[in-house]
């Protein structure tokens, strides 16, 4: 032991002499400090904060995010822990590829942004820390109230992995809504916003009778046009198949996966063999009579329907919660607001259920979804550092801080209990407490498949092809895509298809 002490002292003298010769003392890293200390972590936490990052890359007309930086500075004063924000990736760099690459080398930052679905199914097991062990802990920044009483219970329940792990802490919700012209509604004699599809169509007819274009729709062959049809079909599929939702989760995951959809296609549940699946399309064609005359035209970089709405000639249109700030900044010369999307009812179809599918388009998949990589994916992680990371996440998820972060940009709805959204999105608040349940109907397993089905849908809406001709294309594309996915993933579905 004495020899060891002498050797250690000699080593320190040599290091000191070398550092003096180089003109500086060699500082120990924060990791070394942490490993030497058995006390609290006092180093730097590195965070990929994404959209809410103070150094995010801005596109035209985007607002900078400043709140997270302010809170980080306040947190450092209070705890001595510094928060360093990792610069977000440019748009042309694939984020998930970056995450996987960094994880394989143990180089991920201490906190990353991650969608719950990716965390549960797309990342290798062992990449992210199961945070469920902390959910019952008191949040010291909210009178020691248990953390899980502040976080949205519905979202925690619905975003767990198949084994019950919680990998992502959620703080916002991206919703989709029907934006409407309040003055047009008043002139058309519409006394309340529609809740069901039959009420929605009734409102559209009243707007038409009052001289307005009832609804702005984009059926152009663009990413926005293709995307919007999946919104609409999801609204109907989720409602029509609500009573079968648990049965459609063949593989046992919380949500319906692509593998589940392939099984449903192969079993004839999704496709023209099923009257329920087929019943949706004529309803959508009937809806098209209320669209603007040029609904197949260009969409002005995804903004066509909004621009039509801003003229004041259109009564309603679909858009995401992010659109509220864009509409607001345009300063239209009429009063406007939004309501949650109407869901199908028995007046519209015998296959409609009582399930409110308004929340099926959107979900806790926006910008405030943060996960903590494990030691395997982040070699700087220690138990002390992990506790400090969780403490910072607790600091961010107080009602006041969550509301301040999310509402600065005004694109999403805050989900922490007690946090309120901006006025324009208050109608969407209830969506955060609804079951996270979506049925895609098998039409968008891959982009190539969706594009082909979408083109067939365009022809059907325009009266160029029949419903049967559309269905034939849809069946062919779904079967072809299902077969390709089975082969690519080496799925053995015999246990599901031999029943």
TrEMBL record:
Keywords: Cell membrane, Lipoprotein, Membrane, Palmitate, Signal. InterPro entries: Bact_solute-bd_prot1 (IPR050490), SBP (IPR006059). It comes from the Bacteria. This is ABC-type glycerol-3-phosphate transport system substrate-binding protein.
């Amino acid at each position: 032991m004495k020899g060891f002490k002498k050797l250690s002292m000699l080593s320190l003298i040599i290091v000191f002499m070398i550092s003096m010769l180089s003109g500086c003392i060699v500082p120990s890293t924060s990791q070394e400090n942490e490993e030497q200390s058995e006390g609290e972590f006092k180093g730097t936490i590195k965070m990929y904060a994404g959209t809410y990052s103070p150094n995010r890359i801005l596109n035209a007309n985007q607002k900078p995010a400043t709140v997270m930086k302010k809170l980080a500075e306040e947190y450092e004063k209070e705890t001595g822990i510094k928060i360093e924000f990792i610069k977000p990736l440019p748009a042309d760099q694939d984020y998930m590829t970056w995450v996987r690459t960094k994880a394989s080398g143990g180089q991920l930052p201490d906190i990353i942004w991650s969608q719950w679905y990716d965390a549960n199914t797309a990342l290798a097991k062992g990449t992210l820390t199961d945070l469920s062990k902390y959910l019952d802990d008191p949040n010291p920044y909210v009178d020691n109230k248990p953390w899980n009483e502040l976080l949205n219970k519905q979202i925690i329940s619905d975003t767990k992995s198949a084994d019950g792990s919680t990998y992502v802490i959620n703080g916002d919700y991206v919703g989709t809504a029907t934006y409407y012209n309040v003055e047009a509604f008043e002139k058309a004699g519409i006394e309340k916003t529609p809740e069901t599809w039959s009420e929605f169509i009734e409102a559209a007819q009243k707007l038409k009778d009052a001289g307005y274009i009832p609804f702005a729709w984009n059926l152009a062959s663009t990413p926005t046009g293709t995307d919007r049809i999946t919104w609409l079909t999801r609204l109907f599929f989720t409602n029509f198949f609500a009573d079968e939702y648990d049965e459609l989760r063949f593989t046992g995951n919380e949500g319906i996966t692509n593998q589940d959809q392939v099984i449903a296609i192969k079993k004839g549940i999704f496709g023209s063999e099923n009257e329920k699946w087929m019943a949706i399309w004529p309803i959508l064609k009937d809806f098209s009579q209320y669209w603007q005359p040029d609904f197949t035209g260009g969409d002005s970089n995804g903004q066509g329907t909004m621009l039509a709405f801003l003229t004041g000639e259109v009564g309603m249109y679909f858009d995401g919660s992010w659109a509220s700030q864009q509409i607001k900044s345009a300063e239209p010369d009429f009063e406007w607001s939004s309501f949650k999307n109407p869901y199908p009812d028995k007046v519209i179809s015998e296959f409609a259920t009582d399930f409110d599918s308004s929340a099926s388009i959107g979900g806790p998949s926006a910008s405030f979804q943060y996960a903590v990589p494990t030691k395997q994916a982040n070699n700087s992680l220690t138990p002390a550092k992990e506790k400090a990371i969780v403490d910072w996440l607790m600091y961010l998820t107080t009602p006041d801080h969550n509301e301040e972060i999310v509402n600065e940009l005004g694109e999403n709805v805050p989900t922490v209990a007690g946090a309120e959204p901006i006025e324009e999105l208050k109608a969407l608040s209830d969506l955060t407490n609804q079951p996270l349940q979506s049925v895609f109907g098998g039409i968008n397993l891959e982009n190539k498949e969706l594009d082909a089905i979408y083109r067939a849908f365009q022809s059907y809406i325009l009266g160029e092809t029949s419903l049967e001709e559309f269905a034939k294309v849809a069946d062919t594309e779904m079967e072809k895509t299902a077969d390709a996915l089975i082969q690519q993933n080496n799925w053995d579905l015999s246990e599901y298809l031999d029943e």
